Amino acid sequence: MTGVAILLVAATLAFAASRALRLPLLPLLLLAGIILRYSGLALSEEIARSSLEMGLAILVFGAGMELNPKRFGGQYRRVLGMGLAQFLVIGTGGALLCRILGLDWISALYVGLAVTTSSTLIVVRLLKARQQMFEPFGRVVTGVLLVQDLIIVLLIVLLIRLPDGPTAMAAGLGGLALLIALVWAGLRWVMPYLVFRLNLDQESLGLAIMAVLFIFMWIAYALNLPIITGAFLAGVSLSAFPINSVARGLISSVTIFFIALFFVILGGIIDVASLHVWLLAGVLSAFIILVTPVIVTVVGERLGLTARAAIESGLLLAQTSEFSLVVVLLGMMTGQIPPAVFNTVALATVLTMTVTPLIATDRLTWRLMRIHPRTTPRDLPDSLPQRDHVVLIGYGRGGEIIVKALLNAGREIVVIDYDPVTVRKLNEQGIRALHGEGSDRRLLEQVHAREASAVISSMRRVADTEAMIRHLGPDGPLIITRIFEPGDAERIRRLGGIPVLSSEAAADAFLRWYQYMFGGADAGGGGRQ
How far apart are CA 143 and CA 84, in angstroms? Predict the structure, then answer.
């Protein structure tokens, strides 16, 4: 009990230092654990490993709740392509790199498998903080996370049963299939009934959600599967909206508690005194941070993402994950890999998780775009209008109505859209359209946006809209933009734009603004009234 109290004090001090010094929390929690280890105050190794396993279970449970399969509907090709490409290239490259650096084949294979997945904990937090969870690229990224996690769960089941032969491996797959069937049943029937039909109070509902976790873990244990597998799939069974929001709110304090303890305990069992461990972890971290964005960007663009979305996705995914620790912890507990390999992967995980928020930024994304040999498709529309046209950024749900009305009014239109399929169809219909981001200054110059009579935008990110307004300047075109929050609308208004505050950004709202500013759709004239 005294040991747990010491861990809590250390975690509290790390939280306070992080807030006071504005430093990343994870390395400070790790540092707290390291200090406890060398001061002799850490938990015993056996208790620490048991606590670490329980902490991992809570971490992957929370990760599973963020990965609803329906969230990336319609993006399956991109999700599978990017997820499998990163998994195979990083896994193979990581294993070969470790072999070159002197690890035996078993250890190298464990490390290769461990570094194939990206951290749901880190990526989802960044997407939420930037309000990008429901952007198209955000849906793709969360889909990639789910694909990678499901593959790693499958391979973990096979890996731990490999010494027992094909029959044991088949039995493991059967048990995993049963758990996945329970997830499907939970998503469809059990969880909606539990959350919305029973009318439980907050305390009872919180206990019921934690019971789901322990039931899945018990089933996994009974099937001789890693309890981590049960914990992750329990989270997925709670991932449907709005159930996941209810569950997160009820167990958020529990999750934060275990995250803090987990990383302090991790720091307490990692041996950081070995220069060889630091060297391997540094090389492995550099490989992941440098290679992942390249692989994801190349594959993402080939599958239809814009250069910006592909680069952002690559930067967000450039780290190892909670499942990295699961893999090497299981390997160490079964005696297949030495503690030094666990130390290496654990250190690389903390390093890459810490670096991700520092590199996955708009500033670095745009710097990379400037040197990226992309971007415009070969079939660009000819003879783009030079002046007094309308630039529509984001075709969206109301795009067809808007374009039809403007064409009927005799306006020339250029459409910029994120979806290459939409762009191709518009060009086939004779409507000038370009594939790209409306916040890309080069693209705005290409379509002569500053000389346009109006720019109608449905970009989701307010910061992108603000950057566009500043770039086009006070003497630029009339800018009408969809906005979701009143505070954001006021920001746009102060910059000289016209916000249309609507959660759906209905096409008729855009048209009413356009008719008011240009004298009506029947006027057919150019310029402002």
Answer: 11
> Which pTM was predicted?
0.79
428 shares a domain with 353: no
Residues 6+ apart with CB under 8 A from 237: 64, 182, 183, 186, 187, 190, 191, 212, 216
Where are the strands (E) in 441-496, listed by range? 454-457, 478-483
**Better pLDDT: 74 or 172:** 172
Cis peptide upstream of residue 242 (ω within 30 degrees of 0):
yes
Structure tokens at 505: 């950004």
- Regarding whether 454 and 412 lie in a shared domain, the answer is yes
Exposure string over 478-510, b if 16+ CB within 10 A, otherwise e: bbbbbbeeeebbebbeeeebbbbeeeebebebb
Q: What is the DSSP letter of 381?
A: P
User: Which residue matches tokens 């094909």?
Assistant: 166
Nearest alpha-carbon partner for 284 in 218, 209, 346? 346
What pLDDT, on a 0 to 100 scale, did the predictor assign at position 506? 46
Residues 328 and 467 occupy one common structural domain: no
Q: 195 exposed, middle or buried (CB, 10 Å; 0-12, 13-18, 19+)?
A: buried
User: Is the dihedral angle over the CA atoms 471, 476, 482, 488 positive or is it negative?
Assistant: positive
Q: Encoding tokens for residue 344?
A: 């290496």
Residue of higher predicted confidence among 211 and 201: 211
Answer whether residue 383 is part of any domain: no
Q: Helix (H) and strand (E) counts for the chain? A: 23, 6
Rounded-to-integer distance, Cα 83 and Cα 86, Å: 5
Look at 165-169, 260-264, 336-340, 499-503 and tell me which has the smallest mean pLDDT: 499-503
- Is residue 416 classed as helix, strand or coil in its secondary structure? strand
Cα–Cα distance measured from residue 180 to residue 154, given in angstroms and rounded to the nearest whole number: 11
